[in-house]
Design brief:
eight-stranded antiparallel β-barrel; single chain; two-stranded antiparallel sheet; 15% helix; Porin; rod-shaped; mainly beta
């Protein structure tokens, strides 16, 4: 009777173990991939915008730019960003929502993008003539320094639809911080 119970329990254990077994194919290769867990990043930036339009050059040939940067990554190849800018000298400010396409999903991610928003340059007495919708095209690179720290280098071209059609080209440097669990390496089987 004891032997029958032990045999019965052993058979149940083997059945249970067999239910969780996977078929193994020796032609499968394990591959490591990176999966975004918390795609939101927040940071600070600084840069310069060189004036291209004559009226803006009279105000200053170049403006120092300080920014608050926000970024959301989705579908592994796209970034949506919001930059809030303050430009010196003067009371110059702006903000833009941008969409960037990332060419790689590695530690070095070159990108191109475009943005739209509002910008104000203090070039006269009338507030309404100096504010306008703005558009930007830009190219740059995101460098992953650590899992929770990225460096953004970007060259933007700005056009402001105000009375003077102000234009400028610049260079931005930004530091983006995110959650320590922003990315996670997982093992994934790749089929051939």
């Amino acid at each position: 009777m004891k032997k029958t119970k032990i045999t019965f329990i052993s058979a149940l254990m083997l059945l249970g173990h067999g239910a969780f077994a996977e078929e193994v194919n020796i032609h499968e290769k394990a591959d490591t991939t990176t999966v975004s867990l918390a795609p939101y990043s927040l940071g600070l930036g600084a840069g310069v915008i060189s004036a291209l339009s004559p009226k803006l050059k009279d105000e200053s040939p170049a403006f120092m730019k300080m920014s608050v940067i926000q970024s959301i990554t989705f579908m592994d190849k796209w970034n949506v960003g919001l930059d809030l800018d303050w430009l010196l000298p003067g009371q110059n400010w702006g903000g833009e929502l941008s969409l960037d396409y990332l060419f790689a999903n590695t530690a070095l991610q070159p990108f191109v993008g475009a943005g739209a928003g509002m910008r104000y340059f203090e070039t006269g007495n009338n507030f309404g003539e100096n504010i306008g919708a703005s558009g930007t095209v830009h190219a740059g690179v995101l460098i992953s320094v650590m899992d929770e720290l990225q460096l953004r280098v970007r060259v933007p071209f700005h056009v402001v639809m105000n009375k003077e059609m102000d234009m400028g080209v610049g260079l931005d440097l930004g530091i983006l911080f995110s959650s320590p669990q922003r990315t996670n390496k997982v093992r994934k089987l790749k089929y051939q």
